[in-house]
Amino acid sequence: MNKEQIQSTFDSCGLGKLGEDLSFKLWIKGLGENCDEDMLENFLIAYDFRDDSSMLADHFLYHFQVFKTVLKSWNGNVPFGFW
Q: Could you read off the pLDDT of 11-54 as tens digits, one per residue?
C-alpha cells in the first residue's frame, strides 16, 4: 500500500484525523509492505482508537504487530463475530 491507500483506509473507518497524523509515518516505516488494505481495515475496526490524534506511530505499529501475530496464530481464520 502507498500513503494514499493507508489514508483512504483510515478514512473509510472514520479515523481520518488519525490517518492524517500517521499515514506518512506508517508508510515510511514500511506498513504498506507488510499488509493489505483489508488487514489494516480489520485492525482499525478491532481496536478502538476513537480518532486519537495523540497516538504515536511506534505505538500503533506495536499494536498492529500484536494483531498480526494473533491472526497468524489463527491461520488467518478469525472466529466469526470476533469484531
A: 999 999 999 999 999 999 999 898 899 999 989 988 887 756 67
**Secondary structure (DSSP) of 33-82:** HH--HHHHHHHHHHS--TT-TT--HHHHHHHHHHHHHHHHHTTT-PPTT-
The full set of domain ranges for the chain reads 3-73
Distance of CA 22 to CAs 15, 31, 39, 77, Å?
A: 11, 11, 17, 28
pLDDT band at 62 (very low <50, low <70, confident <90, very high): very high
Residue matched to cell numbers 515510511: 28
17 in Cβ contact with 51 (< 8 Å): yes
Q: For cell 504487530, what's the residue?
A: 65
